[in-house]
Automatic annotation (TrEMBL):
GO molecular function terms listed in the Swiss-Prot or TrEMBL record: alcohol dehydrogenase (NAD+) activity; maleylacetate reductase activity; metal ion binding
Keyword Oxidoreductase: yes
Family: Belongs to the iron-containing alcohol dehydrogenase family.
InterPro entries on file: ADH_Fe/GldA, ADH_Fe_C, Alcohol_dehydrogenase_Fe, MAR
Keyword Ribonucleoprotein: no
Protein name: Maleylacetate reductase
Keywords: NAD, Oxidoreductase
Fe-containing alcohol dehydrogenase-like C-terminal domain ranges (all copies): 165-346
Alcohol dehydrogenase iron-type/glycerol dehydrogenase GldA domain: residues covered: 13-152
Domain of life: Bacteria
EC numbers, comma separated: 1.3.1.32
Length: 353
């Protein structure tokens, strides 16, 4: 086997320790010399954000967080940052919260410290996304990569199991997509495989016992690896599909990823045997799809798009919207016919096999 690839490693500090969010955040703020912090946290995380930022130099707290980061929401956050002359953004929450901080950083050039409360993984990528006029636009920019991440699994002990599962499967989708994304390479593959193993080990534990901190830690570790591999490999077919579904039809982010993933894997695996074998080994299963479906069954994962607001008569429109963004590197040639079958299967929750 001959190795030949280009790999970029993104630079950020990661502090991973349960029960230390307040101290770790204070240390990171001090290291950046910030004196006017903007804390971004939605209503659900407001009390948590207040607790872990107590005594810190907070200039403003911003709680208007909306899924898929609509442009008007981003503009109001940008205006708030400028009005209060902030010099640092602290995001406390899931992917939508991190995404809003990124939208501010994209135009203001402010550094971000991310404190995740889900397994979304956005905190470890330099990818931003904004939605305007039912269209979600994504891009890559060094300015939006958080300078530091504070991982504290104890912050996730109250995360509802349904959201924990959907968010964890979203992270797993990062791993799978990384194996055939445009910049896939052996380093991404190694990170992705370990991410799959950790998520497959951790998620069932937290389903069995939501207070199992060790299970939460393993899932969070896997989510971080998934994001790092995704950030380097780029966006594959799965994410192109889900970005259209989320932005165009306002579908919930994590459940959409959780539903669509097995159908993308079923489409691509026959044409990507090495990737499928790696996924299967990570799951300790005969095939990648066998392992994924067994895990989904164990977790009682979201089963179809119909339950999350996607209407059958939108399938044709979605096919037309997705096709122009399909990566040329996808293992299988994507056609209107096989893409429609994929979406119809996901809509009704049919067996992807």
């Amino acid at each position: 086997m001959t190795f030949r690839f280009e790999h970029e490693t993104l630079g950020q500090r990661v502090r991973f320790a349960s029960g230390t969010a307040r101290e770790a955040l204070a240390a990171e703020i001090e290291s950046l010399g910030a004196t006017r912090v903007m804390v971004i946290a939605g209503a659900a995380e407001a009390d948590l954000a207040t607790d872990i930022t107590e005594g810190l130099p907070v200039a403003v707290r911003h709680d208007e967080v909306v899924m898929h980061v609509p442009v008007p929401v981003a503009e109001r956050a940008r205006a708030a940052a400028a009005r209060h002359d902030v010099d640092l953004l602290v995001s406390v929450g899931g992917g939508s919260t991190t995404g809003l901080a990124k939208a501010v950083a994209l135009t203001a050039g402010l550094p971000i410290i991310a404190v995740p409360t889900t397994y979304a993984g956005s905190e470890a990528t330099n990818v931003w996304g904004l939605t305007e006029g039912a269209k979600k636009t994504t891009g890559v920019d060094a300015r939006v990569l958080p300078r530091a991440i504070v991982y504290d699994a104890s912050l996730m002990l109250t995360l509802p199991i349904e959201l924990s599962v959907a968010s964890g499967l979203n992270a797993l989708a990062h791993c799978v997509d990384s194996l055939w994304a445009p910049r896939a390479d052996p380093i991404n593959a190694a990170l992705a495989a370990e991410g799959i193993r950790a998520l497959a080990a951790g998620l069932p534990r937290l389903v069995d016992d939501p207070a199992d901190l060790a299970g939460r830690e393993e899932a969070l570790y896997g989510a971080y690896l998934s994001a790092v591999s995704f950030a380097s490999a780029g966006s594959g077919l799965h994410h192109k599909i889900c970005h259209v579904l989320g932005g165009r039809y306002d579908l919930p982010h994590a459940p959409t990823h959780a539903v669509v993933l097995p159908y993308v894997l079923a489409l691509n695996a026959p044409a990507a045997p090495e990737a499928d074998a790696r996924i299967a080994r990570a799951f300790d299963a005969d095939t990648g799809l066998d392992g994924l479906q067994a895990l989904r069954e164990r977790l009682d994962a979201p089963r179809n798009l119909r339950d999350h607001g996607f209407e059958e008569d939108r399938i044709g429109d979605a096919v037309e919207a997705i096709l122009p963004s399909v990566p040329e590197t996808n293992p299988v040639t994507v056609t209107p016919e096989n893409l429609e079958r994929l979406l119809r299967g996901a809509w009704e929750g049919a067996d992807p096999r």
